[in-house]
Structures are given as structure tokens and as C-alpha cells.
Amino acid sequence: MGKISTRHLSLVFLFLFIFTVSVSAAKEDYLGQCIQKKDQGNYAQAATYCSQALAEDPDYVDALYWRGYSQAILKQYDSAIADFSRVLQLQPLDVQAWSARAGAYRRQGNFEKAMADANKAIEIEPSYAESYMGRGLIWYDQQRYNEAIVDYSRAIELNPRSASAYNARGAVYSRQQRYDEAITDYSRAIELNPKSSLTYYNRGVAYRLQQLYDEAIADFSRTIELNPRYADAYSNRGLAYQRLGMQEEATRDFDKAKSLK
């Protein structure tokens, strides 16, 4: 066999280098577009772009994770779980992937697997607040409210500026009819994130159930300012107006809620 020249080898290496750089650039570009679409709330396109990144590199962990994330929001739970499982094959200590797969299992109603994954995430990184948030949701869905409060409280200890943790714990307190504690948590969540229509809505419901109708109407009105298509906010404001004898306003809100639904 003839001897391969140094020049020929150099050309081969140059080609391989250019090809590798080209693949790397392409997959990163697709990933960037995937994340951009995810941030815009266009999860179907996000999944498509991540799939294109994975066509360039099937083991591209970031693309697997964000495609799984997008698929979970699209309620494609089996596909999401498959992507998160592949991430965990490649990176067994990826706490976010354990937590994300736990969330997908939870939405499927598979609480046993969801809890196992949530516990694994906490075992790997006991100071990761989001893992306690995820496990709190699993407890909540099973109506095990005391356990949920423990986990949400732990998340707050780890991240005192987590508006979502206060909002979540407030929701549990509301379920237990502990409305004063719920309102305290919702108020703290609003201090931390004054743009959350959900938190104003939740506090409004707690006020309404305590027969504090003026406060409830103020919160539902703020909810509607932030999210004009929030049908339940109109319904609940209508109930509060009705309790105050303001039937015209109540009817208007009930009609608006019906049109939105």
C-alpha cells in the first residue's frame, strides 16, 4: 500500500475540523432558536428547533432537555419523559432533569415515579429549592397538604425571594381554609412579583371566602388589568359584586366570563 502524504493527511484533518465546527455551529444555532421560541411561549416551534439540533447531534443534552420541557407543556408527556430519561443516561447527576421528569410523571398521574424522581433530585442537591417545589406539587395533587406545606416552607428557606413558593404555600393554606395565612403568603408573593395575575386572583378568592368583598373586588380588578382574558377573575368579581348588592356590575362580569369561556 502506498504511503499517504503528509499533505493529504493535513487536508483530511482540515476537512474534519471544518465539518465539526459546522455541525457545532448548526446545532447551537438551532438550540438558540429553540430557547427563543420557548421563551416566547411557542412550545411547538421550540420542540421543532430542538429536534433539528438533535439531528446534528443526538446526544446534545441541552436540546434534549429543552425539547422535553416544551413537550411537557404541550402535554406530550411520554415524549418528554423519554427526553429527560436520555439526559439522565448521559448526565445522571442532572438535578434539573430529575425534577423535570418528576413533573412530567406527576402530570401523567404517576405519583409513585414522580415522587421517586423528586426524592432523587433532593438527594443529589439538598439545597436546590425547585426540587422541594416540585415535590410539594406532588403532595398537593394527592391532597397531602401538610407534607406540601413542609416542602414549600423548605423552598422558601432556601430561596426567600421565591414568589412562586409563597403563592404555592398560600394555595395550600387556602385549601385548608387557613385564609389569614394564605393572604399573608399571597401578599408576600405580590411584593416579590407584582405582575402575577394568578397571585392577585388567588388572594382575591381568599378575601371573597372571608367575605371581604371590597378587597376581593380590588384584587380581581387588578387580575383583569394584568390579564384581560382571565375568565375566572370576572366570575369571582361578579360573585363579590352580587354579595354587595351591585347586580348590574355582577351581571356584566358574569356575561364577560361566559363570553371568554
Describe this structure in words.
The protein has 261 residues and is an all-alpha fold. The chain contains 14 helices and no strands.
Question: What would you say about this model in short?
Answer:
The chain is an all-alpha fold and 261 residues long.
Features:
14 helices, mainly alpha, single chain, 261 residues, Serine Threonine Protein Phosphatase 5, Tetratricopeptide repeat, disordered N terminus
> Would you state the CATH class of the domain at 166-261?
Mainly Alpha
> How large is the share of residues in beta strands?
under 5%
Number of helices: 14
Radius of gyration: 24 Å
Helix content: over 70%
Proper CATH architecture of the domain at 166-261:
Alpha Horseshoe
What's the rounded overall pLDDT mean?
92
In CATH terms, the superfamily of the domain at 166-261 is Tetratricopeptide repeat domain
Looking at the structure, the CATH topology of the domain at 166-261 is Serine Threonine Protein Phosphatase 5, Tetratricopeptide repeat
Strand elements, count: 0
Shape, principal axes of CA atoms:
globular
Q: How are helices and strands ordered from N to C? A: HHHHHHHHHHHHHH
Distance between the termini: 77 Å
Largest sheet: none
Q: Could you say which structural class the secondary elements and strand pairing correspond to?
A: mainly alpha
Low-confidence stretches: 1-5, 14-21
